[in-house]
Amino acid sequence: MKNKILILCIGNILLMDEGVGSRVAKELLQNHELPKGVQVLDRGCMGMALLSDFKDASKVLVVDAVDNTGYEPGTVVTFKPEDIAPYQAFHGAHDTRLVDVLQALALMGYQPEVDCLGVQVLNMSPQDFHIGLTPPVEAAVDVLVQSCLDYIEAKLAE
């Protein structure tokens, strides 16, 4: 489907706030009826395995935890993949940067429109594995979910 909208949620639930993408996917899938042509995927960690997810979509919103934004934990931010391309900090837990995946996708002849939605973390590097979000990131989940729904509505209207 050429006009498919993909909400691609990234994150490792074992690393506290790093799991926010999975939490957003769960909320969207369990509590909202999504329009035809919209897919929500919970994909864990970033990597080249995501290529097949992107190639069927014309519009993609990547939802992930972010750090080093300068904002308070729990702050929701939007950005383009190229905005974070120079920063090594944005791929540490995922091993591959989003821009690397998109460049590989372009080499394959696919260039979906990609936007990013993130939340500034408090802790995504706990000493031990820990499932669950910190209070400021948990408080941002509703805003993230509504932002995803707003994105879907806006893209369907285009």
Quick recap:
With 158 residues, the chain is α/β, with parallel strands linked by helices.
Labels describing this entry:
158 residues; five-stranded mixed beta sheet; alpha/beta; 5 helices
**CA radius of gyration:** 15 Å
Tally of helical segments: 5
Beta-sheet strand percentage? 15-25%
Largest sheet: 5 strands, mixed
- Intertermini distance: 16 Å
Tell me the strand order in the biggest sheet: 2-1-3-5-4
Structural class, please? Answer: alpha/beta
Give me the strand/helix succession. Answer: EHEHEEHHEH
Compute the number of strand runs. 5
| Low-pLDDT segments | 88-94
Overall, the morphology is globular
Q: Mean pLDDT score, rounded?
A: 87
How helix-rich are the residues, as a percent range? Answer: 25-40%
Structure description:
By secondary structure, this protein is α/β, with parallel strands linked by helices. Helix content is 34%, strand content 19%. It has helices at 20-31, 51-54, 81-84, 98-107, 135-157, and strands spanning 5-9, 38-42, 59-66, 76-79, 113-120. α1 (20-31) crosses α5. The model is unreliable at 88-94 (pLDDT under 50).
How are the elements arranged and paired?
Elements: E1 5-9, H1 20-31, E2 38-42, H2 51-54, E3 59-66, E4 76-79, H3 81-84, H4 98-107, E5 113-120, H5 135-157
Parallel strand pairs: 1-2, 1-3, 3-5
Antiparallel strand pairs: 4-5
Helix pairs in contact: 1-5
